[in-house]
Each structure stands twice: as C-alpha cells, then as structure tokens.
Amino acid sequence: MTGLSKARIMDRLPYLGLDIEGEGAESVRIEYNPNRPDFSSDYGIARALRGLVGRETGVKKYRVAKGKTKVFADRSLAKVRPFIACVIARRIKLDEETIRQLISMQEDLHNGLGRKRRKVAIGLHDLKAIVPPIHYTGKYAEFAFTPLGSAEPMTIRDILDKTDTGKAYGHILAGKIASKTVYPILQDSVGTVLSFPPIINGDRTKVGTKTRSLFVDVTSTDERLGNEVLAIISCALADAKGKLETVTVNYSKSQVRTPQLAPSKMKYDHELATAMTGLRLSKKDAKACLKRSRLDIDGKSFAVIPAYRVDILHPVDLAEEVAIGYGLDRIEPSYPPSSELGRFDQGVAFLESLSTTMTEEGFNETMNYDLTDEPTLYGKFERDPGSKIEVDNPRSMEHYLLRDSLLPSLLAVLGRNVKSQYPQKLFEAGKVFLRGESGVEERFRLAVVAAYSESSYTEAKMHLQALVKKHFGELADTAPSTHWAFAEGRCAEVVLKGKGLGHLGEVRPKALANFGIDMPAWAFEIEVPSVKKKSA
Amino acid sequence: MEKIPLHPIERKVLSSLAGGPQVFEVLVTSSGLQADQVRRSISWLLTKDLVTTSEVSTAQVTLKAQPAELTLVEKLREGGGEASVALMRNVMGQDREFSAAMGRAVSAGWVEVKEGITGQKLVLKSNEAGKALKDLLSQLSVPADESVVPQDQKGIVADLVKRGLVQRKETKSITVAITRLGRGALESAEQVGFEMLTPEIIASVRTTGVDAKLRPIDVAAGAPAFYPGRRHPVKELIDEVREVYLSMGFSEIVGDVVQSAFWNFDALFTPQDHPARELQDTFYVKGEADLELSRSGIVTRVAAAHENGWQTGSKGWRYLWNVEEARRLVLRTHNTPVTLQAAKDAEGADARVFSVARVYRNENLDYKHLAELHQMEGIVIGEGMNLRHLMGILTGFYGKLGMSGVKLWPSYFPYTEPSMQVMVYYDKVGKWIEMGGSGIFRPEVTLPLGVKKPVLAWGCGLERLLMLRLGIEDIRELYNNDLEWLRERKEIAGTRDSV
C-alpha cells in the first residue's frame, strides 16, 4: 500500500502518533489516538505514512462523480435521528481482507466519533440489492423485516428485546418520543430494508466478496459529525480503488449532496507555529512540513485541510502538524535554565518530618487506599455509617467509600499480618475525607498503631508525647474521652494548646476481634495542620 | 575435656552445691534464686549429667507425754530408793497404769520386787536407772530429727511411738548433689570468666585494678531478627521525585482530591461527552455537586470555548455545554486540575510547579490496574517556552530519575497541542518503556483562565517506575502492606541503576 519496507514502516509509525502493540511476520498491530479517526483503516494510515516519508505529499484529491441516487429523509425522524449522509463506491474489489478492514473501521467510528452509535451509525450495503430511491423513514415497533444474521423476519420490538445489538444499543432510541415511538428505518423503493439504525442492518443488502458496488449510509444526530464520518469512509473507499459517486439527500425543506469532500481552510499562523515548535523555519519550509502531514498552504496563507482531518480546531493544531511533518525525532531538545529556586509544600514537608520521626521510633510506614468498604470503615467498629461519602457505580466492591479515618486501614493491615513477628508497629500519613458544611473536606492526618503483648495506654501516650513534644514544642493534654476505635476508660482526646488534635487509646477489644487480631494494640490518630494556600 | 556451656543460673546452682549436697529448699536459699529458676535449672543440669538428685525420707519425733514407768522410777528415787508396792500404788494414783508401769520398770531392769515385812516392796536397782531414757526424751521435748535417737534406743522410741507418747512425722525431700562432671564444668566456667558484665564487677575492677574476664561466646551463632522503622517504598520514590523536581527549580503544590468535573475535565477542554468522563471510568461522588459553580467569569469563558472556541481562535467542540455536568464532583483522574489551578493563580508570572499525588480511576483491581495510584506532574509557565524546551525538560527530568534515553512521539490529549508520548530507555530492563504524556496547554485551556504565556505540561504514573525499580510484576503488591515485605525489601535508593 505504501511501497515501503517493513523496517522503514516500523521506524516511522510512532512518529505519526501510532503505538506498535504487537508484531507478526507480515503484520503489525497498532493503536491510534482518538483525534485521528482517519487512522481507523490501513488506507488512512498508508496515506499519512506516504506523506511523512515524502513519497506522496500535500492534500490528496478525491474524484467524486455526480450520482443520480436519491434518499428521502422523513420529518418524523426529526427528533429521533434526523440526519443521513450517503455515498456510493462502484467497481470496488472486496476480498476478505478489505471487508475485515471496512468492518473494523466501521466499529471504530461507531465507538469513537459516533460515541457508541449514539451520535453516528454506519451501514454498509451491496448496491445491487437496492432499488432506489431510498427512504429514510419512521416505523412503529410492529414493523417487521429480516435483520442481518437472522433467517426469519422480526419485528422492531423483538429486535430490540431479543437480539444482542438490540439490547446493547436500544437505549439510544428509547424515550425519544413521548406518545408513540417511531423507529428509523432505511428502505428502498420496493420495501427492502437496508438498515434499522443505529441497531442493525437488513439481511438482504448484506455485503460479501461478490459485492462490486457499495452503498454506505451514515445516520446521525449531528449533521456535521455525520458528514465527517462519511468523509473518512469515502476517502478510505476511494483509496481501496472504489469509484465514488454522490447521493442526494432530500429533507422536507432542503437538499444536500453527499459526501462532501472539499478541503476546508484555516488561517495559517507562521509566527505561532515557529514560536510553539521552537523551530527556525521559513514559511516555505513550514509548507513542506505541512505537506508531509498531507496538508497544504494556499496562496493566501490559508492552510488547506482535507475533509477527513476532523481534528484541526485551532492554528496550534497546524503548529503540531508542522512539528510532525518535520519529524519529532529531528527536533533538538533545549533545556531552559531556571532562575527560580524550588520549594517544598510546607504542609507536605511537615507530614514528612512527622513520618521520619515515626520511623526513628521504630515504626513501619504503610500506605493504604483512600477508598475502602463499609465493613472496614464502619461495620467492624459497630459505628453508624450515616455520614459516609460514597462514589457512584464503583467497579470494585472493596473500594467505594472515602475514608474519614486512617485507623481502620491500619487495623486491617494488622489483621492481614497476624503471622508476622510481633511487636508490629505501623503508621500512615495521609488524607481523610470528612463531610463538612461546604461539602467534602480533606485533611491530612497521622495515625499510629502498635500491637504486642505488653501494649498499653501508657505506651501509647509515651510515643504520642515524644512526637508532639518534638514537633509542636510542648506536651499534649489527654482528657478522658470516648471514640469508636478505643476501649471505654482507655481513651483520651489529645488536646494541644487548647485545641483538640485527635484521639489515643487502647483499641476496642471487639474491633481487634473483628479484624482477626489476637494481640492487644494501642493507637492514636492526630490532625496535621496543613499550611496549604487555598486556591481562589 | 570438652567445655560444657553453662547458663548463668546453672552456674549459680552448681557453685552452691560445691560444698556438698543440699536439700532443694536449702539450695533455693543458698543460691539466692527463685524456686522456679532452681527447679528449671536442675532439670537442665540433670540432662547434662552435671548433678544427681535423690529422694530422701526424713522423720521428726516429738515427746507428747512422759512414760509412767519413768515417773515411777523418779518417785522411787525421791523416796530413798525403796518403798512398798502399796505405797507406790497410792503415790502414782491410777491402779491399772501402775501395774503396767511397774511391769515395764522391772523388765527394763530398773527395779526389782522383794518380799518385805509389810508385803511386797519395790527396790531401785541402781541410782542411774532410767536416766538414759530421760536424757533422750528431754531432747524430744521440741521436734527433733529421728536421727538423734541412738541405735540402741530406737526400739524403745518405736515402742513409745506405738504407745502414742512420742509423735513421729515423716517427710520426703529432694537432695541435689553435684557430680564430678558438674564440678569440672563449674571449674572451667569459673576459669573462662564472667557470663555477663555487671555494675558490681566493674566496681570491683575499679578498686582492684584487675581486668575482669568475660566468658567467650559463640559469636557466629544466630541472633533474633530486628526490624528498624522504615518508610513505605512508594513514599521513598515520591521523595526521590520531589528532590528531582526541586533540583530543577520546581515548587511543590498540593490540591484537593475531590474536584468539580469543571476543573477535572471542562477547564481542560475535555468535551462533556468524552468517554473518559463516563461513570465506568471515573469516580463521581454520590449525591454531591458544586452548586456554587455557575455561568459567570471563568465558567462562561470555558463554556464558550467548548461551544464555539470563545476568543481563542478555535472552532470549539461545537455542542451545547451543560453546567450541570460541570458541577458534578469527581475524584481527580489526574493532577492536571491542580497544576492548572496553579497556572491560573500565578497571575501572569513565570512559574515552575509540580505535584506528586494520588489520582483515582474506576477500575477493578488486577495485576496491572489499581483504582488509586500516584502521578507526578509538572508545568512550566514562561514567555517563549516551546516544544524544544519541553523536550529539554523531559530529557532532564527522566535522566535524573535514572533513564538513559528519552524518545518523544506524537500523541493526543484534549488539553495539549502539540502532545507527546514520552518513551524512556531503562538500562535495568534493557528496553524502551512508555512513561506518560506531555504537551503544551491548548489556548482553549489557558486563555479562558487568563493565562497568556505558554504552559508546558507533563505527567506520568509513579507505580510503574517503582515496579521496574523493585522488579515487581503485580502492581497490587505495592499496597498489600505485607509486613515481611515492608520489613525486608530493598531500599529504593539502591534500586536505581542496579541490575
């Protein structure tokens, strides 16, 4: 397709933004970025590759013959899926590989630009089975036809309820019309159903290796997007040696010819392009670069952009095309020296110093997930989950509640390590999430836990005071208190300079038992004042 | 002779026994140890044949009442050594007792019966009669060991015991004796030195000026494991990354985990129907929204950038922007909202900032996916900053993290243009590795926030690098907090270049 050696292709693919995912003897599996839907077929990739290596540059011209085929779009679909754009590709040679390419392109376009067929759906048909004109019209759920892959006719309702694609995509059509739902059907003049977009094609117009002429329909909720998708398909079909022919779509008050393959124009800002890339290029050099990216510059300093390039929104996108056309691997990096001195965040630095102290006292740092589950956070402490903060639709049933304390995760770690040597002395410095007046409040905390046979409240206080004295300059007061994590009568509030800082105590026996810990443990958790500057 | 090692307690017991066998209770007192310690020590010493034990029975005898025959002899002696049986019967009182006493005194050979004028009379045979028994019994007025009874009197005492006049109490006790082997072990232990230095020994060294010898020990023997406190490996690498950023003139920033969709997506020019915004990829906070967010100021300009490009020169995404979608709260999917807000807050000044913090993705956990991981992101704001500078910074940054090569490929992110994928060469694994993304913020991102200078931006996951460093295949291992692993794993600093 490109006339290039495989080694050369492999070398250049990444510089088009294509990731090589796997490699066979005669093939490469590649992944492309969503901004380049024109890479959804080998034809699009080959087109770009020929440009990048300079074999064929500039905007490729596509010849489209004026056709006589007409499509009538019914007003009843105005609120369902109003737009349709079509193309005919004659005398195309469809072998197995080409069909596989087309189907894979169709799937990619459905999922990407088409947003899982919600915005755009594509139908490929054997033109021979169609008797124009074609009607894009609304039908009720009782309407029946033989869908692709079925031996018998089925009603629309059955297709939606019983087929895989009906179940997967039926929601797109649901609830569009309040009273009596109409469904979009594409049908020819003798009643042959081409497709029921965006669900399924008809069986009669099915494409195979004997197909010589293709009819393509693109239905959409967004006319521009439909045209863009059709342009991408049309250019690929033309590259596959199909002779393109227009189709006229008649709406109730207007008429359009599709596909629309005329290149668009955007002002080329040479100053911007050189400033952004850092390349000292003449305008002529820049034009050569753009041509390698299969773009061009016309006589009036406008960039010429082919219809399949739907990603060019702004002159900065042209600047990138200059860089890509130049070759990113040819651009010399340049380190910009800084006159600034970096600073650590004071809050993080403070947390770091507390953590260092804990390791000096012989404690092991652990890191646990911010998201946990209800048994860990509430159930094992028998406390009310009333103020839990939950995420929607979690995939993992162990990670869906934002923790409001670090202690549960630390006890869970003790519970998982009962076979390890005691004493077990652990800490964690991290964030907790609390329900505050202004929504979710985030705080930095330090939590410490120690399990061993002689662990006691006194030991807890000893370690707490050592830490507090070192980092806050004075000892804390410990006032009798209660807390869900601690045994009654063995729990105190940590008060520093008159302000509550957290709690310490001996861990409630029931909680130890619930976490499967056989060893007594003490713990404390204190708030770490953050010195963070609040963003306006 | 082979040296037999002695525990300090064993040594004390043996030296107490050096003077001769001791009953257990005595040994406890003489050794100055506790009964339990002595008991345990003896069982060990027995297994080493350093002591023997024997069980001995001992009895104590105590006088309860004097035998009547002795009283009879004493009375007779008081009466001049001779008296009629009738008189004596009268003096002694009870008739039955007297007959028995008289019979015993006669058979003991103390008195004899003679016929007198007034009938039978009792005559003391010797002035010493009964005295030996009297002396013996006086010793038994307090409890005494049976061994004090002379051989020839044993029968008499046994008889007295039978008659209930002497009480006999039997006890069993353990006697411990040092063996020859024990003496040898003790001597050699005393020759080789002290088991453990004590303040008392040091004091005696000070007064005598003679150095104290310590018993040589097996220095190759195993010792119990000791585990110092350690940081978590993820934190160790974060610290390394922070130092790298600092050395390149970057300042650290910290931001909220819970962000509005506006800052996480919209302000970053990510269209509202972008797949990354779907529930299945992003964590939305249930039932919460940023209701203060409304179409004014920055929000209006960002909305316009989406809808028509606003004044940025862009076509925009050309759809109807919805404020409700922007109000939803998400757990940040990257740190770019945090660095972006810092770019806005810089208010036109040049700046270099970074953030190494957690990001959140709605994932099922498996060997290569976590729902929470760390990203290290940085931005540079400055007049004239361009793609070559971005390449220079990336090469420097990853170079300082130990990567010997950096390759940049075109890529795509909704919020940067140009965008580049960063590939790094890591000698340790000998291949190129994908290491995150980079780019220059789009005008649709910067201009609505009032940021007019170019902003270079990049970021990458931290765990991936850490896995390479530690040679870990399953990403979940990093957060299992397996204590054995946390205690015994390699130090991160030492994993940089080693193979």
Structure description:
The complex is a heterodimer of chains A (536) and B (499). By secondary structure, chain A is an alpha+beta fold. Chain A folds into 4 domains: 6-52, no CATH class; 64-258, Phenylalanyl-trna Synthetase, Chain B, domain 3 (Phenylalanyl-tRNA Synthetase, Chain B, domain 3, 3-Layer(bba) Sandwich), CATH 3.50.40.10; 264-330, Phenylalanyl-tRNA Synthetase, Chain B, domain 1 (2-Layer Sandwich), CATH 3.30.56.10; 346-528, BirA Bifunctional Protein, domain 2. Helices cover 27% and strands 27% of the residues of chain A. In chain A, the strands form 6 sheets. In chain A, strands 3, 4, 5, 6, 7, 10, 11, 12, 13, 14 and 15 form an 11-stranded mixed β-sheet that branches. In chain A, strands 19-23-24-28-27-26-25 form a 7-stranded mixed β-sheet. In chain A, helix 8 packs across helix 9. Chain A starts with 5 loop residues before the first helix and ends in an 8-residue tail after the last strand. Chain B has 499 residues and is of the alpha+beta class. Chain B folds into 2 domains: 63-171, Winged helix-like DNA-binding domain superfamily/Winged helix DNA-binding domain (Arc Repressor Mutant, subunit A, Orthogonal Bundle), CATH 1.10.10.10; 235-495, Bira Bifunctional Protein, Domain 2 (BirA Bifunctional Protein, domain 2, 2-Layer Sandwich). Chain B is built from 19 helices and 17 strands. Chain B has helices at residues 8-17, 24-31, 35-47, 68-78, 85-92, 95-107, 131-139, 154-163, 180-192, 199-208, 233-247, 261-264, 298-308, 323-327, 336-345, 387-400, 443-446, 463-470, 483-488, and strands at residues 22-23, 51-63, 82-84, 111-116, 119-124, 144-145, 166-178, 251-252, 258-260, 284-289, 328-331, 351-360, 372-381, 405-410, 416-426, 431-441, 455-461. In chain B, a hairpin with a 2-residue loop joins strand 4 and strand 5 (119-124). The radius of gyration of chain B is 52 Å and the shape is rod-shaped. Classes of the chains: A alpha+beta (536), B alpha+beta (499). At the A-B interface, helix 7, helix 9, helix 10, strand 19 and strand 21 of A face helix 11, strand 8, strand 10, helix 15 and strand 12 of B.
